[in-house]
Amino acid sequence: ILLVTSAQPYDGKTMTSLNLAVTSAAAGKRVVLIEADLRKPRLYKALNIRQDIGLATLIQKQSTFENSVCHTEIPNLDLIPCGKIPQSPAELFQNDNFKVILNQLREKYDFIIIDSPPVTVVSDALIISQYVNGVAIIARANKTPLPLLVRTRELLEGVNAPILGVVLNDMKA
Predict the structure, then answer these.
(1) pLDDT category, 65, cuts 50, 70, 90?
(2) Those residues with Cβ within 8 angstroms of residue 125's Cβ, 6 or more apart along the chain or in another chain
(3) What is the rounded CA–CA span in Å between residue 147 and residue 153?
(4) What are the residues facing 77 on neighbouring strands?
(5) Which DSSP category does 30 fall into?
(6) Nearest CA to 84 among 107, 54, 61, 119?
(7) Could you tell me if 88 and 60 are in contact, meaning their C-beta atoms sit under 8 angstroms apart?
(8) Rounded to an integer, what distance in angstroms lies between the CA atom of residue 90 and that of residue 123?
């Protein structure tokens, strides 16, 4: 299970999550991409998937796995869209149902990639990081301030998140 996050909005975490998922699926791995940015979801649009049922409704037991997991046009790649945007997203990730969902997904997929909100904006990624095997921090060249990136690392280390490293994107040669 890989959590993809960033220090701030527009660093490219959503597109990086999508690219990782597509590449892994093209390599023949069974992949599920989870849209855990419940405040500003964008993956469902990129993959042309409905948004009304998904992660939020699944955690709240308002939908089933069968209704919440969407097959994409890309072979081996499924998406769990955000679902109906809840009032308190961070509280959903503290719910035991979220851990149960991840455990069920582990049995079915080779890779679980979770796209989350930025670490310094809301606490969602810090909570989710407790359930994953690794965290990739996405930074945008010449846009992500170094102090904000350092703060992101400190926050993740503060909850003992398994940080794998930083992906620097949008670099000019």
Answers:
(1) confident
(2) 3, 5, 116, 117, 118, 119, 135, 156
(3) 10
(4) 31
(5) -
(6) 54
(7) no
(8) 7
Beta-bridged to residue 35, according to DSSP, are 115
Contacts of residue 100, Cβ cutoff 8 Å, sequence gap at least 6: none
Please tell me the predicted confidence (pLDDT) of residue 44: 67
Q: Specify the length of the chain in residues.
A: 173
C-alpha–C-alpha distance, residues 114 and 93, integer Å: 12
Conformational region of residue 144, where left means phi above 0, alpha means psi within -120 to 50, and beta covers everything else: beta
Q: For 79, what's the count of Cα atoms within 13 Å in the CB-facing half-sphere?
A: 27
pTM across the whole model: 0.93
Only one residue has tokens 């527009």, namely: 10
CA-CA distance, 2 to 6, in Å (whole number)? 13
CA separation for the pair 81, 35 (Å, rounded)? 5
CA distance 79 to 127: 21
Closest CA to 13 of 135, 123, 130: 135
Write down the residue that tokens 């409704």 correspond to.
57
Q: Express each pLDDT in 10-47 by its tens digit.
A: 999 999 999 999 999 999 999 999 999 888 877 766 77
Query: CA–CA distance from 172 to each of 14, 82, 133, 166 (Å)?
Result: 20, 33, 31, 17
Helix H segments across 27-88? 43-46, 55-59, 65-68
